[in-house]
Backbone:
């Protein structure tokens, strides 16, 4: 299937590994010029080398997307992308009563304010060109919060509400805004979550990983390339009638009807 986005330009945040990298790979395969981003210079260089085996039109921008300086660097390198994929490391899990004011502000800045400000920066040109695709990588915690994930649920639910309201206004200009809600993909994040479960529940690593698999209806972890494929479709010319949506990628585990 030709997604109709060859020659477009994409800015993919937090894309040296995991789900962000999977999205960058999928877009590069579609002929999109991709700007990847990460904080660690060595990891960024490695990702760039690997992605240039797929496409020569991949560029790297070092910086922390959660910081104003990092966002300025991204926008200086790619000021008018056709596609914006917002992604950042999620807040650490923990007990609600242990989170102080600074911790809450850090989560909100990184997982709500930062993506909002990037959208503010790139949206006017998208609307003027009558083409734009904004995809926010959030979390299943937006719709199915858990007690140990309140930081993630709170910040990302706030982002989701802002983006939903905005989507009504941008659809007329062929600028779509959608959110991808992953649950249990086989990435470094699930390694982290397994080690948290080991300490919290006093179990082995193997048992923690087994429980992860058992929590998914498909009885397996998701593959990053499956996530990247969905992102690429939402960024495509064929997805212009899909906007303001939360798309669960969770192996059939979402428990609600709507």
Residues:
């Amino acid at each position: 299937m030709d997604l109709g986005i060859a020659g477009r330009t994409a800015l993919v945040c937090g894309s040296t590994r995991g789900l962000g990298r999977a999205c960058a790979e999928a877009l590069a395969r579609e002929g999109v010029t991709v700007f990847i981003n990460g904080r660690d210079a060595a990891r960024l260089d490695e990702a760039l080398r690997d992605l240039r085996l797929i496409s020569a039109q991949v560029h790297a921008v070092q910086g922390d997307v959660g910081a104003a300086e990092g966002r300025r660097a991204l926008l200086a390198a790619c000021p008018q992308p056709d596609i914006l994929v917002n992604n950042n490391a999620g807040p650490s899990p923990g007990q609600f009563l242990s989170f102080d004011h600074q911790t809450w502000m850090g989560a909100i800045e990184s997982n709500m304010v930062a993506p909002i400000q990037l959208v503010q920066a790139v949206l006017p040109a998208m609307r003027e060109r009558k083409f734009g695709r904004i995809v926010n990588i959030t979390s299943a915690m937006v719709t199915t919060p858990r007690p140990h994930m309140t930081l993630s649920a709170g910040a990302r639910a706030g982002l989701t509400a802002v983006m939903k309201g905005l989507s009504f206004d941008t659809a007329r200009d062929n600028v779509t805004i959608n959110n991808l809600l992953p649950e249990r993909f086989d990435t470094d994040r699930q390694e982290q979550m397994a080690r948290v479960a080991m300490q919290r529940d006093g179990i082995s690593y193997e048992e923690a990983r087994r429980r992860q698999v058992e929590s998914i209806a498909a009885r397996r972890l998701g593959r990053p390339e499956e996530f990247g494929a969905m992102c690429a479709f939402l960024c495509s010319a064929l997805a212009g009638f899909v906007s303001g949506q939360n798309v669960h990628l969770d192996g059939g585990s979402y428990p609600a009807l709507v």
In short: The chain has a mean pLDDT of 97. The radius of gyration is 18 Å.
